[in-house]
User: Which sequence fits this backbone?
């Protein structure tokens, strides 16, 4: 998956959340300033979500450092998720806690068991 | 005030908030994607702040469109502020409501009356 393609998917996800009534911000790489920041921040009805978005063809691993960053956001009141754009399928959202329990490993079986679709955000 | 100088002040403010224990994201211009987004989003202890940062030499006006954007964030649970970096002084933070009541106009008298310093964020 090219950087460009990943960027495009992330852009689409941002707009899908906006359509669902979220206030959304995408933090581009150029905006990273040495502070822990997730790819997407979304706010609705007093609930804040931080999302690390990954477009990957195959199973992958989230590094401990990144998990810890998301944990910091979570301990300040956000709900943290990893969003996996599986090729030719929709996004699967995985709770940070589940990903941590799985040592950062995300594969198709894990995503099928623990993941949920973007419809989840309709009820926020 | 040059764009570069404004950027530098914004960068410093972001880091000051991080030092105060906030999770902070700066949304660079390049990250704007046609969605309403403030310059800075900061989260701590379940409280979310959205900040529009302005480095200006003289009095200025926040356009209605931008005030409305911040209002949208606020109605979803954020506290919205305009931060004015006054030349050779520190930041003055102004509540969105106060700025709206003043029709978006921000000047030195208004800032002296209604504004408060960055110490405010120490108690969050």
Assistant:
């Amino acid at each position: 998956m090219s950087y460009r393609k990943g960027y495009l998917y992330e852009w689409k996800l941002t707009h899908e959340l906006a359509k669902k009534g979220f206030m959304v911000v995408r933090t581009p790489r150029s905006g990273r300033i040495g502070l822990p920041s997730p790819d997407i921040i979304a706010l609705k009805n007093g609930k804040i979500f931080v999302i690390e978005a990954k477009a990957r063809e195959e199973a992958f691993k989230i590094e401990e450092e990144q998990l810890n960053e998301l944990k910091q956001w979570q301990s300040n009141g956000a709900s943290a998720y990893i969003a996996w754009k599986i090729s030719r399928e929709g996004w699967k959202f995985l709770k940070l806690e589940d990903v941590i329990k799985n040592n950062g490993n995300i594969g198709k079986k894990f995503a099928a068991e623990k993941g949920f679709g973007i419809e989840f955000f309709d009820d926020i």
